[in-house]
Design a protein that fits this description.
The chain is an alpha/beta fold. The chain has 13 helices and 13 strands. The strands form three sheets. Strands 2-8-7-6-5-3-4 form a seven-stranded mixed β-sheet, with helices on both faces. A four-stranded antiparallel β-sheet has the order 9-10-13-12. The longest helix has 23 residues. The structure holds pyridoxal-5'-phosphate. The site of pyridoxal-5'-phosphate (PLP) has 14 residues, from helix 5.
Length: 383
């Protein structure tokens, strides 16, 4: 019984994060999980009570609740997205994972190339392959603060390129793409007729500046975002795509025959959550304190290089002075600390991140201090 599985799946690798998390010792300090810890405000819990009392957990429309899609269209319009006029520009999805995947299903024919950031979120390369595409990594270098080099992007685009994935703020680097570069990316992709898939899931956790979307500069884009990193709501599984009407029509076809309809209760919660400016501000300062503690503790380790995170709750550091990223992560694991290396026997953040390890600091202060002390201890043993 050979060949019972799709050939495409042979190419798909499990994520290093899950491989290492499964091996963790009980009680290990987990710097690996990209899971928010800022609690969900009580007012949002009331939305859930009302929803249950109303007994309104019906399917809802395929593209999402009309009221929520109208709300999102207005929300994006206020943020400067140029092409939104109403619900026809929005599809609700089961998280950004589905939003990105659905976008790729809608855009790709077999053999089409998709450019994606390297280092970048583990989903992109695997999803491109699952959709029959050819992943083309776009190098982001530590020396240029992990910014996109527009000239390099231009060179990578061929006649086969269908899409370019960008991610700002970025997982794993914690960096934000400057407006000037977003504009250049928009221009390059516009001229070449290549669609931008813009993953903006960390748009609410930004420390230094406000969030800017590439959709301020072009309509040649599918914006993918959601509520997984807003408060503590990843399990509500809600995301969305915002794009031109004709693009949304195609995305709806893919969504209809995979997910069918995104959870209606989550759309109601999201609508309330997105306008909670005061609570969002508090959430940002909650993570900022942790970021500053990390900067202080990591800054005291000799030979480690990293770029200051401007957003997210990740610090992405170069440990190459002490060994390769995979072996070091295994050593940390044996000492009760889970981290995510960029490379290893599974899918990480990409080969351009070799030597780098990602630490999620959405943890309490004591765990951060204990975890970094353990990491320091391992490093003194290997050096
Ligand atoms: C950059 C990025 N995109 C997408 C996702 C997945 O989001 P969701 O939970 O909405 O599917 C994550 C989750 O960690 C992420 O870091």
């Amino acid at each position: 019984m050979e060949n019972v599985n799709s050939r495409k799946l042979k190419e798909i690798r499990r994520s290093l994060m899950s491989i290492l998390s499964e091996k963790a010792l009980p009680g290990a300090i987990n710097f690996a999980i990209g899971e928010p810890t800022y609690p969900t405000p009580n007012t949002l819990k009331k939305v859930i009570e009302t929803f249950i009392k109303e007994d309104s957990a019906d399917y809802g429309p395929v593209a999402g609740l009309l009221s929520f899609r109208d709300f999102l269209a207005e929300w994006y319009g206020n943020k400067g997205t140029t092409f939104v006029s109403g619900s026809e520009n929005v599809l609700t999805t089961c998280g950004v994972t589905e939003a990105v995947y659905t976008s790729l299903v809608a855009l790709l024919d077999n053999g089409c190339e998709v450019i994606y950031p390297d280092p970048g979120f583990v989903l992109y390369e695997q999803a491109i392959k699952m959709c029959g595409g050819v992943p083309v990594p776009l190098r982001l270098d530590h020396a240029s603060d992990f910014n996109i080099d527009p000239q390099l992007l231009k060179r990578l685009i061929t006649r086969k390129t269908r899409a370019v994935i960008i991610n700002s703020p970025s997982n794993p680097t914690g960096r934000v793409i400057p407006q000037r570069i977003l504009k250049e990316v928009a221009e390059i992709c516009g001229k070449k007729g290549v669609t931008i898939i813009s993953d903006e899931i960390y748009e609410h956790i930004i420390y230094e500046k406000g969030h800017h979307s590439v959709s301020e500069f072009t309509d040649n884009v599918i914006v993918c975002s959601g509520i997984s990193k807003l408060f503590r709501m990843a399990g509500w599984r809600l995301g969305w795509c915002v794009a031109k009407e004709e693009v949304i029509k195609n995305l709806v076809k893919c969504h209809q025959y995979t997910v069918f309809r995104a959870p209606t209760i989550s759309q109601r919660i999201a609508q309330e959550a997105l306008i909670m400016k005061k609570e969002i501000k508090e959430m940002v300062s909650f993570y900022r304190q942790k970021r500053d503690l990390m900067l202080h503790l990591m800054g005291s380790i000799e030979g480690i290089r990293f770029v200051k995170p401007e957003a997210t709750f990740f610090l992405y550091a170069d440990f190459s002075k002490y060994g390769d990223d995979w072996s070091l992560s295994l050593k940390f694991l044996k000492n009760g600390v889970v981290t995510v290396p960029s490379t290893g026997p599974g899918a990480g953040f990409g080969s351009n991140g070799e030597g780098f390890i990602r630490l999620s600091y959405a943890l309490d202060e004591e765990s951060i201090r204990t975890g970094i002390a353990k990491i320091k201890h391992v490093l003194t043993q290997v050096s």
